[in-house]
Amino acid sequence: MGLVEVDLFISTSLVDLYMKCDLAFKACQVFNKAHIRNTALWTALISGFIENGRIEEGLGYATMMEGEAIFPNAVTYVCIIRACGNIVSLGKGYETHAEVSRKGFLKENVFVGSALVDMYAKCGLLNRAKEVLDNLPIRNVCSWTALIAGYADHGYCEKAFECYEHMQSEGVSPNVTALASILKACIPQNSLDKAQELHCEIERRGLIAKEPILGSILVHLYANSGLLIKARHTFNALSEHDVVTWTALIGGNAGHGHGEIALMFFDRMRLEGGFPNPSTFACALKACACLKETKRGSKLHLELESLGLTTDNDFVGTSLVDMYVKCGLLVEAQQAFEKISNRSCEIWNALIGGYIEHERNEAAIECCKKMQLEGVYPDPITYMSMLRACRGIGSINNGMEVHSEIVRTGLLTRHPALCNSLLELYAKCGMLELTQEVFNELPIRNIFTWNSLVSGYSWADESCNIISSLEAMTLDGIEPDSVSLFTVCHAYSRSGLCTYHHRFSEVVERLGNTFPDYKHHIFMNHVPDSADNLAKVKTMVANMPSWCKRVNWTRMLSESRYLGKSSLGKHAFEFSLSNMHLSLVSLIWNTKFNERDQIKENI
User: Fold this and answer.
1) What is the average per-residue pLDDT within 384-413?
2) Would 547 be classed as within a structural domain?
3) Contact 587/557 with Cβ under 8 angstroms?
C-alpha cells in the first residue's frame, strides 16, 4: 500500500471516527486537509452528517462530491436515498432513483433497491414503493420489511399482513425488524389472533429474551387490548425492562380501570432503578384519576414541577388537568392549567370536559371562547363538548353559532359523532324541525344518527314520528338495535298509549326480531290496567324466554305500586309467590292499594 492509499485510509477512518463521536468540526478539518479525496472519504463524511441528523448538510456535500467528478458508489447512494426519505425530499429522491436505474445499481445491489422502497414508503407513496419492490430482481428481508413498515406506519394494516405473508411464501424468513413492524400493525387493528400467532413464533425462535423491542411491543399490544395477565406474563419473560415497557404495562392497567395495579408497577419500576419519562408520569396520573387518589396525584404534581415537566409537556399537562377534574377538584385543575405555558387543544379539552362533567356548562362555554381568543383552534372533541354544554343549559343561540362554525370548517361531513351531538342539541331544545333538517342533510346515516333522531322525538313525546322514524330506518337498510328499541319503548311507556305499544310490537316482529330483550319488555308492561290489557300482558310474558319472566313480573310488581294498577300487581304478586320470590312481598305490603288488606290475608 502506497503513501497515498495510507493517507486516504487514515483520513477516512478519522472522519468516520469523529462523525461517530458527533465531532463534525473535527471530521471536516481532517477532510479539508486530505490532499486526495476518493469516494470512500466523501461517503464517510456524507453518511456521518446524515446519521447525526444533519441531513441537509449531508446532501449538500453529496452535491459537492458530484461537482468534483467523484462518482458515488452503492453505499453513497444508500445514504442519499435514506436521507431523502427522512426529510421527505421527493425531488432529490426521484433524481437519485433515475440515476441508480441508469447506472444499473438496481440490478446489481439489493441494498440500493431496499433503500428506494424505504424512501417511497416513508414519503407515503406506498404504490410506488410496491412497484419498486416488485421490479427488484432480488428481494431480501430488508426490502420486504421496508414495505411492511410503510404499510403499518400509514395505517394500512391489512396490506402489511398481506405483504408479510407474501414475503414468507417466497421463502424469506422475517428478521427482528420485520417482526417488530408486523406486530405494530396488530395494535391499531387489535388483531389479537395474529399477535398471539406471532408471539408463538417469536418464542419458538427464542427472541423474547434476546430482543427486548419485540417483548416491549407485545406488552403494549396486550395491555392496550385489556389482556393484562398476558401482558404481565410477557413482561416477566423479558430479560430487561426499559421505560417503554414499564410505561406500556402501567398505562394498560390504568386505562382499563386497574389503578392500584398501575401504581404498584409504577412504584416497582422505581424500586428497580427505572426512571419514569413524561409518558410514564402521565399514566400514573391517569391511575390516580381512576382511584380518585388526590393525595398521591398531588405528590406526583409536585415532583413533575420540580422536574420542570408541567409547563411545556402536552401529555403531562393534559393528564394533570384531567386527574384533578376526575377527582372533582376544579379549582386545582384550573390552577394547574394556568401554569402551562403552551396550552394545546387537548389540554383545553380536558378543562372544558371537566366543567361539563360537573355541570358547569356556562364556564365550559366561556373557556372555549377564551381558547379561541388565544389562537387555539377547536377540534371535533371541543365542538362536541360545546354542543353538550349548550344542550345542558338549553342555549340554542350558542348551539347554532357552534353549528355554523362546524359547517364552515367542513367537519360536519367527516365526523358523524358531531352530527349526533347536533341532533341531540336541537331535539332536547324542542327544535324538531331543525333536528330533521340536520338529519336530512347528512351524507351518511348510521345507527347512531338514526338513534339520535328517534331519541329526539321520544323526548318530545312525538309518538307518530317515533314509529315513522323506526320504519324509515329499516327502509334505509339499518336494523334497529337495542338502543333504538329501548328508546321507543321508554317513550311509549311514558305516554301510556297502549295502541302505539302494540303497533311497535308489530313493527319489531315484522323486522324479524322474535322479541326485544328484557329491558324492552319491562317498558312494554306500562299499559293501562284493565282485564283486556292484563290478558295481553300475560300472553306477552308467557312467550318470553324463561330468564326474562322473573325480571318482568318483578318490575310489574314494583310499578303497580306507583301506577295504581291493582289487578296487574295482584297477578304479579301471585306469580312471585308461586316462584318462591317471597322477598317481593314487601313491595306490595308498602303500597297504597285498596286491596292491600286482602293480599295480606292471603299470605
Assistant:
1) 89
2) yes
3) yes
Instruction: Report the pLDDT averaged over residues 379-403.
Output: 91
511 and 557 part of one domain: no
- What DSSP element (H or E) covers 587? helix 585-589
Specify the DSSP element, H or E, that contains 526.
none
Q: Please write the tens of the pLDDT for every residue from 138-189.
A: 889 999 999 999 999 888 888 999 999 999 999 999 999 999 999 988 887 7
- Choose from 435-444, 460-469, 499-508 the range with maximum mean pLDDT: 435-444
Q: How many CB atoms lie within 10 A of CB 97?
A: 22
The answer to the question of residue 276 being in a domain is no
User: Which domain covers residue 459, as residue numbers?
Assistant: 445-524
DSSP one-letter code for 292: T
Answer with the residue of higher pLDDT: 445 or 74: 74
Q: CA-based Rg of the chain, rounded to a whole angstrom?
A: 34
Q: How many residues can be counted in the chain?
A: 603
Residue range 446-455: mean pLDDT, rounded: 83
Q: Which three cell numbers stand for residue 43?
A: 461517503
Q: What is the distance between the alpha carbons of residues 483 and 472, in angstroms, rounded to a whole number?
A: 16
3-state class (DSSP) for residue 137: coil
User: How many structural domains are present in the chain?
Assistant: 2
| CA dist., res. 573 & res. 562, Å (int) | 15
* Position 582 pLDDT exceeds 80: no
Among candidate residues 524, 544, 576, the one where a domain is terminated:
524
Q: Please give the grid coordinates belonging to residue 224.
A: 392496550
C-alpha cell at 524: 312494554
Cell numbers found for residue 106: 438496481
pLDDT of residue 495: 55
Q: Using CA atoms, how far apart are residues 459 and 329, in angstroms rounded to an integer?
A: 33
Other CB atoms within 10 Å distance of the CB of residue 347: 24
Burial class (CB in 10 A: 0-12, 13-18, 19+), 206: exposed
Asked if 181 and 160 touch (Cβ cutoff 8 Å), the reply is yes
